[in-house]
Specification:
69 residues, mainly alpha, 2 helices, 61% helix, 12% strand, elongated
Length: 69
């Protein structure tokens, strides 16, 4: 019996957190950073990783945090 009530309260807490998340994300200011690299664009494994990282960060924050390589 206790396990069911624990799971119900955990599910309610998770739902409340999920509902509150978009409101928090909307209030954040837009941030733009520049990432300098000493590696040339021809080194795809190193320079390309920085480009992929900046793309993933931008997608995860819905464009609120952008990194320009």
């Amino acid at each position: 019996m206790e396990r069911r009530s624990f799971l119900k309260s955990g599910a309610l807490a998770a739902a409340a957190t999920t509902v509150a998340m978009p409101a928090v994300a909307q209030s954040q200011p837009e941030v733009k950073w520049r990432l300098t690299s000493s590696f040339p664009k021809s080194l795809d494994t190193i320079y390309g990783t920085a480009q992929q990282f900046s793309k993933y960060v931008s997608e995860a924050t819905d464009g609120k945090f952008e990194i320009q390589v």
